[in-house]
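Assess this today:

___
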Amino acid sequence: MTFNLTWQSFPPPNGPLAFANIPWDSELYEFPFYDLKLGDASPAQIEPHLADWLEHLPAEKSCLVVTGITPDAVAMARILTRTGFYPVETIVELHVPLARFQPLITSRFQKMCFRPAQTGDLPHMQAIARNAFSTDRFHLDPNLPSQKADERYARWVEASLVDNDVLFVLEDKLGGRIIGVASAKATLQNTYHITLAVIDRNYHNTGAGVFLFQSITGEGKTRGFKLAIAHISINNPNSLKSAERIGFSTHAAVTKFHWFRRGLSALDSAHSSPRII
């Protein structure tokens, strides 16, 4: 998945708010998604401009804004909620220095094959990705349809394949089927960002998830990276436990907030009465 965004300031030219349209989510959901960065600005600097910026967003279509703050930023959280934002998910950032990374599982999964993904694997990878999540912010937000959230992760896998990210599958050699998908990319010099690691639900609680996470992390060490990073929702305790078991430790956390406004066209449609002839 390509994460490049085009940022603008509000108020222009150098105001304390930075925002960008999120093209992949806007395309999928068919209305504008925006990422809002609050940066290092203080609550006092943010508050006078936040409501004004929201009023400038297009009103004809529905609109969603996502922003993130640290869990201890209570004053900023109060400003956000007063302006109509609502918390949807807290994500933990975990790190492991790859020089000290050692595989936890060495022999138990000899009947599993961890190999680079191929174009022909895409339908199988997407099927796993569509069913992998149910408690992330895209599924939890009642303003967003769950089927679109499922498709978002299927598109994520396809974009990783097209972009030539580090993309691997875990294959059950006995069953002859793909049971897991993992991807990563270089985000900074010598930094390896694990962006996805999902297991077929039939293989949950078997240790296969730990083996998959271990394998994609080890691939980063093989490629010469110095640090591996992963972002995992606190709503996904099994993945958090898997990461901790293979040496990751918590580095930071961010609470994601959404702001949603239904478009005027949608409101008109919802409130329209049937014509009597």
Observations:
- Confidence is low (pLDDT under 50) at residues 271-277.
- Residues 8-90+256-271 form a domain with the Aminopeptidase fold (CATH 3.40.630).
- The chain has two domains: 8-90+256-271, 94-252.
